[in-house]
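Protein in question kept underneath.
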Amino acid sequence: MIRHWKPALCALLVAATFAAPDLLAQSPPREQIVAEDITESRPATAEEKEEFTRAIAFGKRFFDIGDTKGALENYLRADSIFPDQPGVLYNLAILMVKEGRYADAHARVERYLSLFPEGAEIENLKGLQLELDFQKEVEKRQQETKNYVEIFNRGRYHLSRGEYPQALRIFEEAAQKQPTDPAVAYNQALAFEQTGDFVRATEYLRRYLALTPSPADKNEVDQKLFKLEAEIIDMRTKFVCPFCGVKLDDGATWCHRCWHGPYLFDEPHWNSRPCVVGASATRTMFFADGRFGGNEVLSCNIKSGRFGDALSYTPSAQRAIRDARKSEGWVYDGDLLLEKRLGEQKVLVLEQGADVLERLLAPASGDVFAYSAEKGGAGRWNLATEDFVVDGVRFSKSYSYDAAGRIAKEKVTYQNRGACDHLIGMTADYAWSEDGTLGSVRITGGYTGLPVEGSPTVAWSGTLSFAYDPRGRLAREEFVLSSFTKTYAEKPKHGWVRDEVTDFYPTLKWKKPLDVMRTGDYCGTSGTKRLANQIDLRPFYTVSPGLPMLLPFGVVKMTVDYTYPESFGGK
């Protein structure tokens, strides 16, 4: 609500239906002014004297009947014939006061006092001069008040139009002219609130209360102060989910309302790919025999500063995120995403529970993705289980956490429908260093095939290790596949299947582990194409942004080397 200027200000503006000074009642116009009294510097003609006398007489008669305007016109006429006559100057001053022409009256009084310091009306005019000086000061204050009201209303106009910088500039000008007007302080608070400067907004609301000893809206203002102070705390302690815009507590790993994340702001491996000159991330692969397997430059993913710097909560940042989602067809219920629409069709539906997102449904396909969570601290939720899809492959994943709330283990299951439909399981075990950084992650995987295949068991194991530079920045990630074996429990029952297997692995011996690090895990054919289960590291997007990939056949080592400009800080 925009505050208007206060009644006291209005009273000051309209108080000048100026009461005529009391002195006027004691200072009647001089009645006897005749041509013979004229003081002149030139000879007067008889016609001029007659005209002068006539104007004086008419002026008196108009005054007697209460027509001060007519009287003033005639005395002005007389003054134009013979200027600076003491009686005329005196009467003009009196009549001009009655007509509200205070500046003109003041000029006539000044003229009289300078020309006739010993004049008959000198005492009366000195008193009148004092009153006129006072009236002049009142008019000055009235003009200042009028100017102030105009400035104030211009500020209110810009505020109502959402032009907050202009409103603040104008209100500051108004505050310099009327520093004790509480309405200015209130409207300054409103403008600062809309710009997101809640600290200044609370400062001016408190000033408003200080300038208004017993405001009628004190409860309303106190509630606004409480909300603003809560927002200030949130801006210092919370960040905003970059996908849905929900406020999250510092230390939260996931957004519990859309399950985007992780947001591991303090981890060096999540601050390893800034989009600045001098930074790079290069992935290199090596085959089992040591041959170079190629390299690629990974794209940057930190637009400015460190990971999370741009995610600090502000109302404007939150609005921008929500506006972006709404433009894509997302529908909100307050702070929560409900669904995504394409025209009238529901593309995705989010089933929000009391505390967390529980399910995501795709009505067109019938797909359902489930989530569960565990309490991770005040206002924080840790993702316990989730379903997600990468390139058409559906993964189910579970997490467990250590006493410090850090991820300790990830388990992944998926059915590789792009190959032989094996149900594959994988596990990542985290090892944290004493200084709190991630030291290494051991990743294992495998499956047991069908009896028709000979019940093969596949198992692989690898370790992702991290190296840091003296400033705590991630210098290198290195994934080494330490083992990859396949053991057939028996010969396949069908001859054509046995032929396929022996074609894949000519040196195979049944019931003995076969090292497939060089060749890969082949499981069947489709026409002339060999089907295989690649080691899929894509579900481990939470381990490091440089890890998710399908490991090419025969690759046993992968490194990512990082460089940074000197200005980019460490942990």
About this structure: The first strand starts at residue 238 and ends at 240. DSSP finds 13 helices and 22 strands in the chain. The first helix runs from residue 7 to 14. The radius of gyration is 45 Å.
